[in-house]
Amino acid sequence: MSRQDLLRSLPGVDTVLGWQDIRELLSLHPRVRIVRAVREVLDECRRAVLDAADEEAARHWVESHEIARRVAHRVGKLAVPGLRPVINATGVVIHTNLGRSLLDTESLESTGKVAGGYSNLEYDLEAGKRGSRYVHVARIIRRISGAEAAVVVNNNAAAVLLCLNSLAEGREVVVSRGELVEIGGSFRIPDVMARSGAHLVEVGTTNKTHPEDYRRAITERTALLLKVHQSNFQQVGFTAGVGLEELAALGRRMGIPVMNDLGSGSFVDLSRWGLMKEPTVQEAIGAGADVVTFSGDKLLGGPQAGIIIGKADALECIAQNPLNRALRVGKLTLAALESVLMHYEEERPETIPTIRMLIAPPSELKRRARRLQRRIREKCGHVVSSEIKPGVSRVGGGALPLQELPTWVVAVNTKGLTASALDERLRRASTPVVARIAEDRVLLDVRTVADAEIPLLVKSVTEAAMAPAEA
Ligand SMILES: *Cc1c(COP(=O)(O)O)cnc(C)c1O
User: Fold this and answer.
1) Which residues line ligand 1 (CB under 6 A)?
2) 471 band by pLDDT with thresholds 50, 70 and 90
3) Fold of 87-96+359-466
4) Which CATH architecture has domain 103-351?
5) Which of 10, 132, 198, 322 would bridge 168 by S-S if both were Cys, CB 3.0 to 4.6 A apart?
6) 3-state secondary structure of 95
7) pTM
């Protein structure tokens, strides 16, 4: 049969809808979804017939059982939301591609209540009139940071942009050459600076910047001294920088405000649990910075947000900027953030999932790895071989780049499948699993897998190992 004949032999939409296999889908899916799937599959078949290497290959695309199989598959895909939960078996705790931080159940519950009902978002219940959406979260941020005032925006990139625009538009901002950083996903200090309308004045060298460098750069055009946390890299060797305290003192002497982009921003000193030291938010305020910005969903462990804190006059100017309205956060973020911050206020940061995963002791991880391996052996031990091995997890999110977190992984492989083929099947499983590959095995790092997720993870591993090869 020629390709034209093959195309003519493709059934119409109504014909396919009448097939028994397809009618059975109606008990599980709305008709509109099935119609869409049929249309899309028939389009796909039409294109495939024209693109096929030869007529023999083209013939395959017009067979009715093939069309029915594809429709059923597509209907299933259309039924799941595009954005959905995955299991993070990479061991990277603050994984930006996988949503960074998880909310604890308390925060989920309080966020859910605000989401599902009316709230006093912008209503002052005592005065009986309009209020500000920021007072709720600002109050708790002030209490735990020691800052005079706080504003919350969409993310830390927005926070930096808003601060620079509010405090330095048309004027100069002095930054060390060692701190002109790029954070993943196109956030670069010089570019954000340009967009804010402020002019960047670089001082010092890549490896060394001295107080004198800042002092000499200050003119009547200077609006701000900016210190940026190096977040995702570290300099070693012949290096020198100016500490925040020293920079703040210089700013005070010269009458110029000092801003600190902290990046991650943590309210607890993680060295308490033996991790490397990151500057805390309280230390930045204590050092005398006028404005400090940081992320809500990095080490803090909350929702995506950019938090701006500092002196009342600088914050007033930032709050009044019309750009603030464009960068504002919704009630879900505010509810989640306030709830997460309560963990810090109540001095129980280890109940925040991000912190809990970062400080999980190796003994606990080894127990979880053993449990995972036992379940894998029970469910699919005949096709999956597994071994428990020590490994290294990462903090992620551009925080503590050199920190190695000793962990335990379950290394799995399946006869007849390469590690990358197994990895791909895991990503396509009904609950997708994202893992690492090393030495031709897939490594499942249990640091970022909750105990409650183990049954689902085992189900996905079983599905991936037993699935027939993709057509
Ligand atoms: C991560 C980071 C940002 C951007 O923060 P987001 O919350 O991802 O927008 C800005 N500055 C520094 C130093 C960072 O580490």
Assistant:
1) 155-157, 160, 181, 183, 187, 228-229, 231, 261, 263-264, 295, 306, 398
2) very low
3) Aspartate Aminotransferase, domain 1 (3.90.1150)
4) 3-Layer(aba) Sandwich (3.40)
5) 198
6) strand
7) 0.93
